[in-house]
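Task 17 of the worksheet. Students: predict the tertiary structure of the chain below and write it out as structure tokens. Keep your answer in the requested format; marks are given for formatting as well as content.
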Amino acid sequence: MDPELEAFLSLFPRVDLADPVAERRSYAELATSVPAPDTTGMEVEDRTVPAGAGVPVRVYRPHRAQGAVVWLHGGGWVMGDLETEHPWAARLAAASGAAVVSVAYRLAPENPYPAALDDACAVLDWAAGNAAELGFDPERIAVGGHSAGGGIAAGAALRARDDQGPPIRFQLLNQPALDDRQETWSQRNFTDTPWMNRDKVAAAWRHYLGSAPATRYAAPARAEDLSGLPPAYIASAELCPNRDENIAYAQRLLQAGVSVELHQWAGTFHGSQAIPSAEVSQRQIAELGAVLHRALAG
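Model answer:
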């Protein structure tokens, strides 16, 4: 493990998602302990997307933003909101120059699949339909997210392809949760890795899926056909149960004719970017911004 990350391991709470409602507080405390970035030079606005009961979003709009990313937070589908994602959404907007539409999708287990995916797709439709008012090009819209949010983003890209939804320019998938089957080497063997391990991943999938079957939109690794999807950037962490499914998904996208950039970050663990003082975390965050800028501004 990267020694700068290892020094902070004691700060990560040991949660098992047995009671996700109760554990949201510790997750919020961890997330909001990250120093908030300077948002000077961008507009930050809370809105509600008129779908279902209304989906809260926070729009980060840098000056002269050329495109936007519909951004889904992490938290195992059961934790996270606009406030926990604020440090990361603001940094991504500043680093990329793109507008970031951060989505407070409905959480499991109270709202199992497909609630979160439905919310993400509703926001994608809204962003594309209101791009002029929101200040970006409707032809330059990406989807992306961390962890569970990365899996939702990949599912939204699949659904948009299948249902002729809004055109998606790019997928920005950071340590995405893609496969409920947990059959890869990293899923079977990473039983005691920091923050995220095999049992915690299994619990998150149970909460998310509820009684629903795992379709390709819930677990994108189950999709048989990955052709026609947008180009993708996929980042994996070396000490993360999701690592091998991330790499396998990137390979399958490539074999389906989809352009992919894959970065496997040595010495990192799932969610270790929550330690922004570490040099490797700074490189990861900067790369996410640079990749998104290149995809939307080029």
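Marker's comment: Residues 3-297 form a domain with the Rossmann fold fold (CATH 3.40.50.1820). The longest strand covers residues 260-269.
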